[in-house]
Amino acid sequence: MSGTVDRDRVAQAVRELLIAIGENPDSAELASTPNRVAEAYTEFFSGVGVDPVALLADAVPVGEDTGELVLVRDITLRSMCEHHLLPFRGRAHIAYRPGEKVVGLGALPRVVETLAARPQMQERLGEQIADAMVEGLAPEGVLVVLEASHGCVADRGVKQVEATAVTIAARGTLSQPGMRAEILALIGASSR
Fold first, then answer.
1. To bridge 119 with a disulfide, which of 19, 27, 74, 82 should be the other Cys (CB 3.0-4.6 Å)?
2. Is pLDDT at 1 greater than 50 in this prediction?
């Protein structure tokens, strides 16, 4: 985990928050809450300061036998909305058309996890994943599709618990409408 989260300061802030909402942080029910939240935030924000491109460093050259497309779909996604510090959850689908190298399939979920483990916006997250793929692998094209439900939409304001946001980030050859449509159809084939 990243060492950027100051657990003591988070715990102090949570203690102050409890006081601010009229609760007693020293009560038996809440006495451990500040430390629990600090521990959770250490996990939630472990991607702060971590370079996602480094996770693609084990790429291997493939010569002319790269194949047409690599698609990893249904990558579990969990992040924290930077506007309300409420969670959003969903799935990421990453497709790339290899250039001269490919990376182990497990590297793609790690990139998603690292970039999601910081205060985020879904729209920016997809762009950051695509940019990391371009920088780390130099593929001919990248397509990132994110589908997520947001706590700030479901639990406050409009309270739309069934609403899902879909965002797309594309680079290179996978920006072309025909290629995008083909990949979106492959992603849709995984729908439940």
1. 82
2. no
